[in-house]
Amino acid sequence: MMKLNQKEIDKLEFKFKINLINSITGIKPGNLIGTVDKEGNENLAIFSSVFHLGSNPPLIAFVTRPSQNIPRHTLQNILETESYTINHVVSNKIVNAHLTSAKFEKEVSEFEACNLTPEYHSNVVAPFVRESKIQIGMTLEDIMDVKANKTKIVIGRVNFINIKDDSVFDDQGNINLAQAQSTGISGLHSYYAFQQLATLPIAQADNIAIPEKS
Q1: Is the pTM of the predicted complex or chain greater than 0.70?
Q2: Structurally, what CATH architecture does the domain formed by 27-193 represent?
Q3: Which of 8, 46, 107, 116 lies 20 to 30 Å (CA to CA) from residue 94?
Q4: Taken in order 205, 29, 190, 16, is the CA torsion positive or negative?
């Protein structure tokens, strides 16, 4: 058993603390964010921090780490073009996707270096990942600075959706992530497949059946 207060957490060995805090929140979506600069240099990077921010208007956000000392090509390209793509990591490409986290020079395309295929769609400047079954085109809306750790929250509006397999979504717009072969990430380098356990009706306070404690 492990029980830690704030002082004990702060004193943990650095690598142990990084792994613990990164994985303690559970499985997060695995996504590849595709960008391109004005010179045509493509970039692809894996993120586990993509999250839904709102449906009307359709907004999705992600967190990018501090850029004071290490160049963040994804952020630089988004600031240049205001365009980027979000692509689900599929289960048969997790190694390729993971390798995009390596520190490549700006002129090196992670698509080529990690054996993934860029794909372009009309009216979206940034490249998509052809191997992904769910592709989302984004336009930059806002960037919020997080003072606590100097990260940034990049907020974008969905301007394009491409779901390559009709069996992945139902007539209500619900997406089956298991059918899409989408994957999740825990910590910095552990990958998980999704299994759909149930689809439950919207909870109504005046009409609920609460399961008994086990």
Answers
A1: yes
A2: Roll (2.30)
A3: 107
A4: negative
